[in-house]
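Lecture 7 notes: from sequence to structure.
We start with the chain below.
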Amino acid sequence: MNKLFISLILCAVLLLTACTGRETLENNNVNAPVTVEDERTVTFSAAPSTAAAETSPLTGRPILASAEFTVNDPENKRNLPTERIEHSYGVAKNSVPHMNSVNTQKFFESKKYNAVCYDNKSSEKVLYLTFDCGWENGCTDKVLDTLKEKRVPAAFFCTLEHIKSSPDLIARMINEGHIVGNHSAKHPNFAEIDRQRMAEEILECDNYLRSAFGYTSPFFRFPEGCYTENALELVGSMGYTSVFWSCAYADWDVNTQKGGDHAFSTVTARLHPGAIILLHSVSPDNAEALGRIIDYARENGYEFRALSDYKM
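Predicted structure tokens for the same chain:
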């Protein structure tokens, strides 16, 4: 009888200990990932998924895998022309593109290069607004404010240095629906480097956008507007459209700014149907005049479109 009583007491103690131990284990591991061993009974939340962890904190977009590219004909054994070409757009007048732009676009099309300096296909009065961004001069936020107010899309061609130094601005461009174009990593003259270096310049910039912002775009602008046919072919083979311009003015020198009225009168005098407008984001004149330029263009029947709307 005594042995039976002792056995019953021991069983009760062991059962109480087991229950208490399990409760303590679950409380101490409330945020632990589910394991195979306790998957049957655990009721606490699992750890965050990998997908959630792979999101850009700047844009909220999923991080993109790095792009890879193998350069075709790295030594240019096909002897594609390597003569330096400096883009010459000419000054448009009376709402007509300059013949320099007309002939350049014909050249791109005749050689089947994936490049554009103005839209010669649309029968409508369309404009494409683009900015080159090599560094920040405190004007870009004002430009973005105006674009947001006027509901105008734009493309910002940014160097890697600018992207790294101004992440909040780049994120704002992306989040507000603008295009962030590739302007190379170190802004070299593409008429002076080989095909392998060209590809590396483009990929380095693109892959940073992919990893930091979850973003990529198929638009490239040659640094300094200098190129060769060899370079045009290489950029096109990578899936990019090379974007030039048909309307611009000397706005990049921050030491020779002439005021918003000068920017307004110069840009509006050079508008024409299909124009790709090049402005520099470092110019306080452009930031001051942009709203008036947009209003003037619309009052004269123009419509602003994104580069992604252009049909090659």
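Points to note: The first strand starts at residue 85 and ends at 86. The beta strands are 85-86, 115-116, 126-133, 155-158, 179-182, 219-220, 226-227, 241-243, 275-280, 303-305.
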